[in-house]
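Encode chain A's predicted structure.
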Amino acid sequence: MAGKLSKEERKALIQEAEKERAEHPVKKTESGFATIDKAAEKLENEN
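Encoded structure for chain A:
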């Protein structure tokens, strides 16, 4: 970037990012261990 942003510019960027997050929420993903546990349980149920 060419230089520092002013407070107003920073505030506008933050508001824009918050608006974007509100419109397109990120789904919470499971941890790696939860995924492994589910796969193991599925395999146990198949046998």
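The CA atoms of residues 38 and 44 lie 10 Å apart.
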